[in-house]
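Batch 3, record 17
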Amino acid sequence: MREVYLVGAGQSDFGSFPTESYRSLFKTAFEHALDSTDGELDRRRIDEAYIGTLGVGGRQLGLVGPSVTEHVGLDGTSCTRIENACAASGVALRQAILAIRAGAADTALAGGVEVMNDMSSDRTRFWLGVSGETEWERMAGTTFAGVYAQMADAHMGEHGTTREQLSHVAYKNHANGAKNPHAHLGFECSLEDAIEGTTVADPLNLYDCCPTSDGASAVLLASREVAEELTDNPIRVTGSGQASGRVGLFQRPTLTGIPATEKAAEQAYEEADCSPEDIDFAEVHDCFSIAELLAYEGLGFCEEGEAGPYIESGATMPDGERPVNLSGGLKSKGHPIGATGTGQVVEIYKQLRGEAGDRQVDGLSRGLTHNVGGSGGSVAVHVFEEGWA
Amino acid sequence: MGAYVSIPTWWQQLDSRYRLVVGQCPDCEAFNFPPEGACATCASVAAFERIEPEGTGTIVAHTVIEGGAPPEFEALLEAEDAIGAVLVELDEGVRVPGMLTDCDPHEFARGDRVEAVVRKMFEQEGIVRYGAKFRPV
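Prediction for the assembled complex:
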């Protein structure tokens, strides 16, 4: 199998931007990615592009991929739009990796974009629920926060997870995001604030929920030959895993875990020839606080049912044994749906290169990204490591 | 603009909308809801036997939605201040998503017993959509 290297990554700010469009945001992310490469990469060398987006608001629903790539001078380049809800660009990343492995591309672009804040409240609430199971779950009145609230309720009931443990996710990720200049909600919050937030879907409150953001992200991948031309400090993509799960929570065998996370992680670890203990740091999908706790268990960072005590121990803080969501995560950095998966890779790239500014943690050499679509209908997991193979 | 299930699709599903009709897999005997597609337990694609359940079950996951209801349930949320959204494990052993009715949803929790009743779900395109909700036994 051909080796794949991460040679560039960039993002726009995540937030609410009345004067930007989905194309201008993507352009910002793409130019940052190009600028981030060590050597000069001519954009016309990109063989394949994969763009993740849900298409929130319905703007350019057809051919949205070529619409953004033409905007950055890639007219003519093969481009495919990927829709897997919130896992859209994590899956786009995997497609780019597969294209290089297959020999169909030597240089590939994976990215994502979403604009979520330029709509009426009715339209926003319609689009926020479209990644859940529509015909039964949503028609029973269950919102997207509601589905995760049901998982939180089941986890609390079965494993004794507490309100305070859920709030540790917001407390930690806001502390990290406050150091990220790209973050949508780049402020700190106290544990008390996080515990006492306004209820959205009991037991989840406002501090348990990520914001809806505008933003874009882009990463550049290359074969070994191209990577050798560009850099002496390579980052290799050592593992890629993807799995699907039943779209509706009610149809899954468990309410306290996401089976697709376990399957995707198993595949990624096997490819990377490593185990959870070998992961130095991770960017995981914390759309709701409970989602980060479920990720710890599904990725094998702790035992099943132990995620509450695990976060409370400080293990995933920047000075802990395995920092998680140093970028601020979806909770603080923001969640422009299609841009989230490759946005996670931007943090991996910066941390491994020592370019993460105030939030830099030294001594990291192997990172993992975990991107979930819906409440677990699709999951992509990737492992990155410093050095040539 | 609300979530959308077309009228023809809704009508095709009326047995399950009104009476929670489930499918039993002829290969592994597991119950599936709704009664269509591959068996969630053994992935068999053999046609399900359609069974009408008793309509009683136990809450296995519970939330009370106080904000951000989808447009089709906005009027209900305004009228009642809160929507109880639950997963119910029917006594036949299959889970269905549901909404609580005829009660204060805050007073319910995992483990409580409920039964299905037909109620108005919402109105769309000038047509009332009825379906099963759950109330305390």
